[in-house]
């Protein structure tokens, strides 16, 4: 296997990374060049939007292929960790076989869609198949890596898993052949498949895709190209390009030293007050979330510096990681948060309005976390003196000023109307590249390439989940699930009041946010619940912010929250030691959420004042 990895898997992964990084760089150049040509030369590139979206679709699948090769896809591990060792090995092997089946179907249907659309053109006259064939090739790479991953399991476990899948498939064909009238409807089978996948630890994106495929196979009424078309439709939108660009900003900030400079300055300014290190952590998360937009990039940038500092100052690292996770929840509504962009896209809300609506709620939660840090912080929990040379304070201020230029670009771009959210994110990435390479001189070609590869891989992870969730949402729409849910929620609220709808929405998003990856929960429930809220007289921007915060609480809630697992990995602590302090922070944040939910002025004052 080592020889196989050396001569086949590793070169294929390098090729995948190179293609994904080139696609991201090309997208960045197309978007930035289009804005400059439009504003400076008054010569807009009519084809830029179609090309940028096509590049993003391809980037999503090549990035997802790289993530799959590295084993970065996340699933709910809480249940499978309780299995006996033998059952755990069989479950992991079965998951690998299912991922092969899922990626194989995606690749087949995507290539079929490319063939089907040959000869058709986009709005600007470009060949439409140039979007779907690269998507299909990226999915083929995913299928190959899925095969490589499956091959790492014991032959006996793999054989049993293949037999199990074959038996289920054969039983279904026999049932459909001899007793078609007794077949169950697709809905319960989709739900059963999704629940089994979650309990078994299948990565979230593949669990969503398999649920959609179950409907496709069971109903027999739709061609496979519809499934691939819906996956592409889920990410074929110019607005979503802000996701890879802001993720790239986060990685570039970490690579070029911008993160370290800001955190060190905060340590020097407030790190020696009571609970000072915890205050620094909250303030750092506020600043970084307002720049990079990538939650895990924020957690990694802040945690990689401050968790070791907490250990040096004799603080409980579990409590520090819990505060790091709590701060990430707080920062869910600080622009340019990716989940705000996703919700604005799927629920047809103003992204600029959501950005403004999220600022004061984030400020309220940040003040609550800072107050708890000061009140309960230990007087001895000081940032220790470093044995090495310390950076002069004036130099730190200079570096911080250059870094905070990103905030000027982001918010200035919105306020002046110079560019859209996506276009601003492209210029933020270019700014981070220039600062790292020219001003700080810490971002060499190798580090820049590494940042592009990491950003493309992380973007592929997020956007693949968005694509899979869109395919599932389409299948649910065919079964009128959104309509039935809306009617049930309206009927309940008509008898009990809109406040019951609000509380129920918060509960749903907390539970689903802990079970699903955050973006998937918003994609599925955002379009369902936002129209109902509007019918009940709840402001759409206000309700959207409440949904995002509730999802964030669920994402970091023990024992299932995937975000909490990520924070524990970054902090190098077991999840068990974070549960108790995390529950305290989540209780505080939930109290803040209830205040935000039932005092709409907190969210709506600023966007209304700015004309949203």
Describe this structure in words.
The chain is mainly alpha-helical. The chain has 2 domains: 2-236, no CATH class; 241-460 and 563-609, no CATH class. Helices cover 78% and strands 0% of the residues. It contains 25 helices and no strands. Helix 10 (258-270) crosses helix 16 (393-416) and helix 22 runs antiparallel to helix 24. The longest helix has 39 residues, at 2-40. It starts with a helix and ends with a helix. Residues 380-388 have low confidence and may be disordered.
Q: Based on CA inertia axes, which overall geometry fits?
A: globular
Mean pLDDT: 83
N-end to C-end Cα span: 58 Å
Helix content range? over 70%
Sheet bearing the most strands, described?
A: none
Number of domains: 2
Low-confidence stretches: 380-388
Following the backbone from N to C, one meets helices and strands in this order, namely: HHHHHHHHHHHHHHHHHHHHHHHHH
Number of helices: 25
The number of strands is 0
- What is the C-alpha radius of gyration, as a whole number of Å? 24 Å
Bin the strand percentage.
under 5%
Helix/strand-derived category reads: mainly alpha
């Amino acid at each position: 296997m080592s020889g196989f990895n050396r001569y086949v898997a590793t070169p294929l992964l390098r090729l995948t990374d190179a293609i994904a990084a080139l696609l991201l760089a090309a997208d960045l150049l197309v978007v930035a060049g289009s804005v400059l040509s439009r504003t400076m030369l008054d010569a807009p590139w009519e084809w830029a939007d179609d090309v940028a979206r096509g590049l993003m679709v391809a980037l999503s699948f090549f990035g997802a292929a790289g993530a799959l090769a590295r084993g970065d896809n996340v699933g709910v591990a809480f249940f499978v960790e309780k299995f006996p060792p033998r059952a755990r090995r069989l479950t992991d092997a079965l998951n690998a076989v299912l991922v092969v089946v899922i990626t194989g179907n995606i690749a087949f249907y995507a290539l079929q869609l490319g063939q089907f659309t040959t000869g058709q053109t986009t709005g600007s006259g470009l060949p439409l198949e140039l979007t779907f064939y690269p998507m299909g090739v990226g999915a083929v790479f995913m299928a190959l890596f899925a095969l490589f991953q499956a091959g790492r399991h014991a032959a006996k476990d793999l054989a049993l898993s293949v037999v199990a899948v074959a038996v289920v498939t054969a039983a279904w064909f026999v049932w459909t052949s001899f007793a078609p009238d007794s077949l169950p409807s697709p809905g319960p089978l989709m739900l059963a498949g999704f629940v089994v996948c979650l309990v078994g630890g299948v990565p979230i994106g593949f669990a969503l895709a398999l649920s959609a495929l179950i409907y496709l196979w069971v109903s027999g009424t739709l061609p496979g190209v519809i499934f691939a078309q819906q996956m592409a439709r889920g990410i074929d939108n110019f607005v979503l390009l802000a996701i890879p660009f802001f993720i790239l900003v986060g990685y570039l900030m970490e690579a070029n030293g911008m993160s370290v400079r800001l955190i060190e300055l905060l340590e020097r300014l407030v790190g020696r007050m009571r609970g000072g290190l915890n205050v620094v952590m909250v303030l750092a998360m506020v600043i970084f979330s307002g720049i990079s937009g990538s939650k895990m990039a924020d957690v990694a940038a802040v945690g990689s510096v401050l968790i070791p500092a907490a250990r040096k100052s004799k603080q409980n690292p579990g409590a520090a990681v819990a505060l790091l996770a709590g701060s990430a929840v707080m920062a869910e509504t600080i622009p340019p948060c990716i989940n705000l962009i996703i919700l604005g896209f799927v629920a047809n809300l103003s992204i600029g309005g959501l950005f403004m609506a999220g600022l004061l709620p984030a400020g309220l939660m940040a003040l609550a976390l800072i107050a708890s840090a000061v009140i309960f912080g230990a007087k001895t929990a000081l940032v220790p003196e470093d044995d090495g040379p310390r950076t002069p304070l004036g130099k730190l201020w200079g570096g911080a000023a250059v870094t905070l230029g990103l905030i000027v670009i982001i918010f200035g771009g919105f306020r002046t109307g110079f560019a859209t959210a996506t276009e601003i994110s492209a210029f933020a990435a270019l700014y981070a590249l220039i600062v790292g390479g020219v001003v700080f001189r810490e971002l060499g070609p190798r580090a820049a390439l590494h940042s592009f590869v990491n950003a493309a891989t992380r973007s592929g992870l997020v956007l693949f989940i968005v694509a899979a969730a869109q395919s599932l949402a389409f299948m649910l729409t065919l079964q009128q699930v959104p309509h039935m849910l809306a009617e049930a929620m309206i009927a309940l609220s008509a008898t009990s009041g809109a406040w019951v709808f609000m509380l129920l929405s918060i509960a749903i998003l907390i539970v689903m946010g802990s079970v699903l990856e955050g973006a998937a929960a918003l994609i599925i429930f955002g379009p369902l619940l936002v129209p109902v809220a509007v019918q009940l007289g709840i402001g759409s921007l206000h309700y959207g912010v409440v949904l995002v915060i509730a999802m964030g609480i669920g994402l970091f809630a023990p024992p299932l929250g995937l975000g909490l697992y990520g924070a524990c990995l970054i902090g190098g602590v077991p999840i068990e030691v974070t549960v108790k302090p995390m529950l305290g922070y989540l209780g505080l944040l939930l109290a803040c959420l209830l205040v935000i939910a039932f005092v709409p002025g907190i969210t709506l004052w600023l966007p209304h004042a700015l004309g949203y």
